[in-house]
Design a protein that fits this description.
58 residues, molybdopterin cofactor binding, single chain, little secondary structure, 0% strand, 0% helix
């Protein structure tokens, strides 16, 4: 997150290949594990713009 981003917006600039462990938990950083597998109604593509997240300072 940067000061240039609009409040309430989170961006993932780059992901990685899906790399699951023995329990199928992704350890590679693949954004697709956070999105639905249903296509968007308009473009029939990945609806990555409609995901709710919670960000906490650690």
């Amino acid at each position: 997150m940067t000061p240039r981003m609009m409040p309430g917006v989170v961006a993932l600039g780059e992901g990685a290949w899906y790399d699951p462990d023995a329990k199928r938990v992704d350890k590679g950083g693949c954004i697709n594990v956070l999105t639905t597998q249903r296509p968007s109604p308009l473009a029939k593509g990945n609806p990555s713009h409609t995901n709710l997240v919670q960000v906490e300072k650690v």
